[in-house]
Every structure is written in structure tokens, then in C-alpha cells.
Amino acid sequence: MDPDLLAVAARVGQALKDRGETVGVAEGSCGGLVSAALLAVPGASAYYAGGAVIYTLAASRAFLAGSGVEVPPGMRGASEPFATFLARSAVAKLEATWGIGEGGAAGPTGNRYGDPAGHAWVAVAGPAEATRNVLTGNDDRLANMTAFAIAAIGLLAEQLELS
User: Does the residue 54 lie in any domain?
Assistant: First the structure.
């Protein structure tokens, strides 16, 4: 696993443990890297509430149905409203302090919405909310997945005031 990804996850994990807070994850094009990085930190059971890879419509329906989070009208994947919905739903479904949501196009081609490879939205919900658009300009699938995961956990680090 990428050392930069592990480093930011370790900082976030320690901060969450110190604060007695938890995080839930609903990620798409990262394919589980956000969760894997957070779980690679010893003692992750103290702060990791759970997560899901929301890569298909079926996964979205199964994990997010009945979350009590309002679905934005006209919402589509790989968008700011979608990432925010995922983050809020992770908080609601997993009863977590914080939620991370991510949706994008890892590559090597773009997605069905016309977004290019290397495009993603990441979001954090909880005591504070934030979103970020990631545009790598790259069609390397694994590099994009890693960049998206670093951006997602990094955004949580910013909300925790770690950076």
C-alpha cells in the first residue's frame, strides 16, 4: 500500500482514537482503499465503524437504502452531491461521528456520465462538512484509486484540523 496513504491514515486514526470518535466509509472508485488504509492502523477497531464499496447501483441501494438522508434530486454518481450523500449516509447507517464518501472514474477510461479518468469527488460529513474535486489528469487506474483515497482521508484530516 502507498506510504503516503498509510501515513495520512495513521494520523487520522490516532486523532480519532484520541478524540473518542468514529468514522464510516462509503467509497466507490477507491475500491476499498480508504477502508483498507484506515484498518491498517493498529487499534482501528476503536474508531472504524464500518464501510462499503458503493461501486454499483445495487450496492448503493443495499447499503444506503433507509439511511434517512435525503437523496438530492437528479443525483448521479461521481458528483459532489453523490459524494456528500455517501458521507452523510455512512454517518447515519453506521452511527459514526464522521463519514467519508467518494465517487469517481479511476480509469483507464472515463465513466458513463462523461467524466474523464482521474476525476473524483470526495466528501466528509459529521461535525463539519467538506467536499473536494480531484482531477489527476491521469488514466492509470491504480494511481487514481490511490490519489482519490489520499484525498478522501486527507479531507477528513483537514476537518480534524490535523493539517
Answer: yes
Which amino acid is present at 74?
Answer: G
Query: Which structural domain range is residue 98 located in?
Result: 3-137+147-159
Q: Residue 47 to residues 33, 126, 131: CA-CA distances in angstroms?
A: 17, 14, 22
Pairing of strands 98-105, 119-125: antiparallel
The predicted pLDDT at position 61 comes to: 78
Q: Does residue 142 sit within a domain?
A: no
> 105: which strand partners?
119
Does residue 18 sit within a domain? yes
Q: How confident is the model over 12-44, as pLDDT tens digits?
A: 999 999 999 999 999 999 999 999 999 999 999
- Name all contacts of 107-116 with Cβ < 8 Å and 24+ positions apart: 107/138, 107/139, 107/140, 107/141, 107/144, 108/139, 108/140, 108/141, 109/139, 111/77, 111/78, 113/76, 113/77, 113/78, 113/79, 115/78
* Residue 137 grid cell: 489528469
